[in-house]
Write a structure and sequence with these properties.
Chain lengths: 339, 339
């Protein structure tokens, strides 16, 4: 492609798109500069691989107006977030992009910038992929590959009754950010400063995979997963997958200052925060006798974790203590389901 | 899901879809029965991994009327075909399915049947994935993972001047099959029997990855790739990726009997056959002194291979000798490009 082409010029042909993506493979010899039709991966010695595929589509996982830099970041981050929650370090990724129409030079340039920023931050490289054109929303389907020391992946099926329940970061920001991105007037209605509203929107557009937590999870967690479909729904999943009951203390769920400000005007929003998707924080169970060590290791890694409940004997049912100690009224739909 | 549900009932909820897919993970302990959010892969000792992602979408890679069994087969086969061409053995796959509307029980049952048949044939298992609902065509995005002995992947970038050029199977059947599937009246126009027309349609709907050729490719080929976008376009790609010229003798390109019958009535169709996509045959270059050994090894594996030209010194330009020895008139667009 002519690098002097104007930003609104259309990138014409698959080969031109591939040429723009090829620099993202630097550092990944098995990508063959996207000149081969497959990627080659030499697994590091004494490791196992952790694999995840989670596509993102315009209008569902990101908004039509989002910048290509943000779209690229999110497409990679939501997959790397899963690897982090399993205690894995990202190695590389494959990416299939479906365009409803040929992209412009400006969009592709921004998209490559966003991927470059994300992969530099996350420590991985593009290894291969595919592009096509089809009707429907712009879709980026990434498959991320990470490595863990042999036998050390942290499953979500192995939480034990008696374990403490931890969550990283803060919950509900992205759900509020999505609402703000869709309806700008909410900023005033919720009494937020520009900086606070911007923070919440960024939490929706730029999830931060908790890679710094991977080592502490491998060392101390009995089970872990990332939260993508809402804290409550994903906690229910972990309980079911592990066959144990769980208890969540709503008042202990960590909220950001902007989220607290929204809550102050409308305390009933708590249930929304606990069921909104897109948190991309880590939910982990830790045996009681390791809970303090886990929290200390997380703190040393610069990641806040908060104890928000625990796992209990009994059938896999979630009980929630509301902020006043009584039960919490939940909406009928307790998390994101596509169907 | 209620197994007595009528076939036209809708499968409701992601969990119900996942439950239908879970049996496909049997034999793949790292899939955790789809109860985890990531898959775990322990690479076999002394191997490297070969990875490929190639989504298929309704209306582009398969037809709206195709059976769910055929759709499933093709979605996996097009990815495994790439692995075979690299000399790799499939280990497993991740699959992200996007439905425009919740699927019916009948469709999902057929889809799982098709995947089960394909993975039994190809020797691999479902390891993980994702389902969502979004506008646009039904899309199945598979990432296939295979293994090769360390250092033995067959690239497409390493063809050498002087090598013989081979192709497996027959070329152009799927392109004719696609036309027949779209326009039934062509069967009569082309003078085909029902069996011949059915054969060509099957070649479009049920590509056969040439897994039996993998060992011969590893042992003898200097470069290889699968043909998905048309023989000519993919041969040009191999020449460019390897930096050598190539020569194709059109009269030597192997055609099936049904394709020969179509050709007999319209010899000008030859160019179409050489540029139609969806062949999923293997294109391989082999040093001259190993050409006979390669052909013998392929024959022993039950796969026909045909020498159709060779690689030459010089810039990466493809020259084609037409059936009468002169140049071959080609359509302006010499293969599939989405853009």
């Amino acid at each position: 492609m002519d690098r002097r082409a104007p930003p609104d010029a259309v990138v014409s042909g698959e080969e031109a798109i591939i040429a723009l993506l090829a620099p993202l493979t630097q550092g990944s010899p098995g990508a063959f500069g996207l000149k081969d039709d497959c990627a080659l991966l030499a697994p590091p010695p004494d490791t196992e691989l952790v694999l995840k595929t989670d596509p993102v589509a315009e209008g569902i996982h990101f908004l039509p107006g989002d910048s290509p830099q943000d779209v690229a970041w999110k497409a990679l981050a939501v997959n790397v977030s899963d690897l982090a929650a399993k205690g894995a370090a990202p190695l590389g990724y494959l990416m299939a992009v479906s365009f409803p129409a040929a992209p412009t030079v400006g969009w592709m340039t921004g998209f490559v910038e966003g991927l470059q920023a994300a992969q530099t931050w996350f420590g991985c490289h593009l290894m291969g992929g595919d592009t096509d054109r089809r009707p429907g929303p712009l879709t980026i389907a990434i498959t991320a590959i990470g490595s863990v020391p042999r036998g050390r992946m942290v499953p979500r099926t192995t939480a034990q009754a008696g374990d403490a329940l931890f969550v990283s970061g803060t919950i509900g920001d992205a759900g509020l950010g999505l609402q703000l991105a869709k309806t700008a007037a909410l900023e005033t209605a919720w009494g937020l400063s520009d900086a606070e509203a911007s923070y919440l929107r960024q939490r929706y557009r730029r999830p931060q995979p908790r890679l710094g937590l991977a080592a502490a999870l491998r060392q101390y967690a009995s089970a872990a997963m990332d939260i993508s479909d809402g804290l409550i729904k994903d906690l229910e999943r972990m309980g079911r997958a592990s066959g144990v009951a769980s208890r969540l203390v709503a008042a202990d769920v960590p909220l950001s200052n902007p989220a607290r400000r929204v809550m102050a005007r409308a305390p009933e929003r708590l249930a929304e925060l606990l069921t909104a998707g897109d948190d991309y924080e880590v939910l982990a169970t830790v045996p009681q006798d390791k809970a303090r060590l886990f929290a200390a290791a997380a703190k040393a890694a610069g990641i806040a974790v908060t104890e928000i409940g625990g796992m209990l004997p009994g059938p896999p049912v979630l009980s929630i203590a509301g902020p006043s100690g009584g039960p919490l009224a939940l909406p009928e739909r307790t998390g994101w389901d596509h169907f």
